[in-house]
Amino acid sequence: MKLSSLLLAALTLGGAVALHAEETAREAECFKTSAFFAPPDSPEYRKYAPDRTIAVVNLAIDVTPDFTNRTIAAKTTITFKPIAQPLPELALDAVDLRVDSVKSSEAILDYQVANDKIIVTFAEPIPANKEAWVAIEYRAEPVNGLYFRTPEMGYKPGDTHLFTQGEQTEARHWYPCPDAPNQKFTSQITCRVPDGMTAISNGRQVSETKDTATGLVAVEWRQEKPHANYLISLVAGYLKKVEDRHRDIPLAFYTPPSDINEAQNSFRDTKDMMAFFEEEIGVPYPWPKYDQVVVHDFVAGGMENTSATTLTDTTLFTDATENIRSSEGLVSHELAHQWFGDYVTCKDWSQIWLNEGFATYYSQLYAGHKHGRDAILYSLYGTARNIVGRTNASRPIVERRYDDPGELFSYLAYDKGGWVLNMLRAQLGEELYRRSIKTYLERHALGSVVTEDLNSVIEELSGRSFDQFFDQWVYHGGQPELEAAYSWDARDKLAKLSLKQNQRIGDDVFLFTFPLTVRFKTKAGAVDKAVTVKQKAEDFYFALEEAPASVRIDPEYTLLARVKFDPPAAMLDAQLEDAADVIGRLLAVESLSNRRDKESVAKLKKTLNHDSFYGVRVEAAKALRTIHNDEALDALLASTHQADARVRGQVIAEAAKFYHEKVFNGEIESLGSEKNPEIQAEAIEALGAYAKPEVRETLLRFLNSTSYRHSLANAAVRALRTANDPAYIEPLSENLKEHESAYTSRGFANALEALASLARDRDDRRDSVREFLLGYVNHPRRTIRLGAINALGALEDSRAVPVLEKYSLALKGSPEQSAAANALRRIAATRRAVEGLGDLRNTVLDLQKANGELRRDLKTLEKKLDALAPKTEPQKKRPPAIKSPKARSG
After folding, report:
1. How far apart, in whole angstroms, are the C-alpha atoms of residue 454 and residue 447?
2. pLDDT tens digits for range 416-426
3. Strands 132-140 and 71-82
4. pTM for this one?
């Protein structure tokens, strides 16, 4: 259905207004419900670690999973001692556990099972420091915390397995526990599985025995050093492994059998990483073994369970991807956690940066160790851009105002936390920094920590106060937003650097005080000058022998800041050519991206083809896309022959963001010659913008192709969605019916949303697509279930509302409830836009009616004037008739 430009504009405006109103309503709701905006006297305003009424000594779980029915039968025994005072009752976190019995070493008066607790009341309070135990037998069908992957859910029969996830508070869904990070205890897990299955948990395996009566094999693991509750892990099922050793530490990498061929690619650097971390940190790996277990459809990227990390299957890759795909960052991050997060653990979630910031930074340190200093600097450059590119970022790293602890697992804990460590390392020097971190770990080994524990060690060993450092960088938000201006006084041979801090200063963001190095490069060499910046605006003067060829602010990249500095063109050229300064070259590329002249394009093209570091070449490709003129496109298309697949893929991806016949031809050519599936996928996706007969044939061919993790078909699906041609509805729906098992869960969910998008504006196909999507809203795989709900929102069909309303009443805070609520909002916004269109039509009709009445009134007036005109004076001109206005068409 085509709309006139007026109605289309009105519809667009109506939709925008409706969406704005919806956003406003949601923001208002957030203000009402979020603890972040709660009044200061509200007990929900700030969150702290819970009281520890007991010290847990040991937690033992004996669990028998039923893979067919996706249930468990278990017994959890908790050994503990009351702290400081007698304990009248024990409250344990537990959700949806059907309790069969509760026993204890002490007499029990009663117990009750509440919505999220099991409360055991003792006949007499247990005296302080007396060791006691409580044993709870129960059954469960976990929705969170423990996840099955079985044939009944659409997974390969030979890959049947289960896995658990504790962080942040999911453990309570499969066993009763004190579910907070400030409790540490030993643990033992016994899992009873069918013969032929493997069970993996924390610590060391102490036994494996077969029960002749049941045929099940009982595998027992013991974690003999205390660790936090959320780090308890169990993975059980059909698994295969590759192995190695680091010193006397066994290393293993497990996958479901169908994935074992790709295991070595992800496992291969583990041994080198462990050796590097031991040397860099100065503390030996603290656990008896290190297992990594890949599971299907993991709920995160990776989870650093003590000695038994769980990894997503999306980390696996084939050799065909060359160096585009790698597990290095994920594997090194989770391994670093074995020290930072497991050996020492944040006391409460507000301190999560002590886990995640350290893991992020030490992963970057490993990248520098393996690939050279440019690699760590490029990684820091990427995280810095992620941080400083945000507006009004006033939230601190340590934040106690939150509703759900998941809110704290953000760029602040990871990227900014890593940058805090990078600045500390720079200010302390590498040797003192290493000694400080080693002391911090040894002093708090197997314990809980807060930021002040790190600060106190640094102050003790350095003799310097770091209160201001942590106050401005960790306990308050933002970062310096520097504006710099340079000038040269030839008479006095003085370089002048003017600095302004332009960040919005308030209660949450400070005026920063920090050391800063300025490097002047002259013919005689580099001269570094150190200053301390602490004012809103300051001028600094530096005596030099001659005018510098380049000026670099923070040349070693040790300050997290947004810096606006536009050096003269000659300096920028020198910076771009400086082979020893990768950050300088990256910043020069960034500056050139803001220019559209031919000379700047030529410089970027040269950089793209000849810079020594792949990251600079990647950024040059992005810069040419940003310039986005004909010369920039030609430069990209002339630069596709790159030996480094990462650069080659980036060039293809950036060229695809242009719409041009040359791009189309280039993508078709690339598909004919390129063997790397990651780059092929970029070319396939780009074709969606071109409505050509040969495109349809190509996209349908790849839609029905086979590839590792169905990557090429996924790219074809994305291209179909971009094409937005309803002719693709039928082939896509048929493909989904016939090849569901070939897709990953995420790939299939994305395809459902693509199908809905294609049918959204087709009244003749919307019903059939809606019914197709409804067939997946109860799918046993949560990812596909959520994809179907999201797709119903993308379809924007009001007839899906009754179904979505049922899911909006799901468990509060569940992914299903959130997805349904978003889908309903999207449909409501569309409905309001259509209603607005109807109002506009009515307005047009009213105007047409009013214009018609005006015309009739004018005709009546003309007749009256004619009747009143004198008949005897024909020579006089009659007054001109008043022209009626033309009615405007809608």
Report:
1. 13
2. 999 999 999 99
3. antiparallel
4. 0.89
